[in-house]
Amino acid sequence: MGISIEDKVALVTGANRGIGRAVVESFINHGAKKVYLAVRRPESAAELEAQYGDRVVTIRADVADKVSIEALAKQAADVDVVVNNAGIAIPNSRVLDERAEPNLVDELQVNVFGLLNVAHAFAGILEKNNGALVQLNSVASFRDFADIATYSASKAAAYSLTQALREDLSKKGVQVVSVHPGGVVTDMAEACDVTTSTPASVVGEALVDALANGDFFVYPDPGGQMIGAAYQHFADEIVMADFS
């Protein structure tokens, strides 16, 4: 089961910068008919609007706000591919820091409950349209990093839910994709002192290919590919296994 992005309608949360923006650009370059830009501040999408005109539609949305995402789904009921990219990472958030608990709460609200909100709001639409749900996870979903301990924990939880969504939605004809970058050039990576020279565009291009190929895992950059290669045996034997 694979989906060509050509002539499809897509929606990207957190579309205004970084990986989200790169995904929008790749989708349009590969022939997407329309891309909804779901952002908290509509003015932040002005450059994309100027660049792509009526091929993009900006909608204010906050993944951490269930009501906001329910309203988003009503406005984007024609969508074929939903990319839940929006996320937060609080720098220097070690597990023993005094702010570890509030930091984790904030990251869970966006990175985990945001995924739940998007999945609940769009599952029926994607089933009707034989579409795809894409979740931007991380190599931190597999391995905690002490300097971003709370972020890593939130991404592990998001990846766990992504596995469950694959099992549920694949039975309904919906492709689910889990993207695990190791480190690409974004504002978030810079804030967290992640050293990398890999442009965010590699994620967009890898995602287009994964959708077409019907892949579940996407490891778009060298860091992600290294960890993905080590993880692959477990993924094949356990994660992708049918234990029913």
TrEMBL record:
<dbReference type="InterPro" id="IPR036291">
    <property type="entry name" value="NAD(P)-bd_dom_sf"/>
</dbReference>
<comment type="similarity">
    <text>Belongs to the short-chain dehydrogenases/reductases (SDR) family.</text>
</comment>
<feature type="domain" description="Ketoreductase">
    <location>
        <begin position="8"/>
        <end position="188"/>
    </location>
</feature>
<protein>
    <submittedName>
        <fullName>SDR family oxidoreductase</fullName>
    </submittedName>
</protein>
<dbReference type="InterPro" id="IPR057326">
    <property type="entry name" value="KR_dom"/>
</dbReference>
<keyword id="KW-0560">Oxidoreductase</keyword>
<dbReference type="InterPro" id="IPR002347">
    <property type="entry name" value="SDR_fam"/>
</dbReference>
<dbReference type="InterPro" id="IPR020904">
    <property type="entry name" value="Sc_DH/Rdtase_CS"/>
</dbReference>
<dbReference type="Pfam" id="PF00106">
    <property type="entry name" value="adh_short"/>
</dbReference>
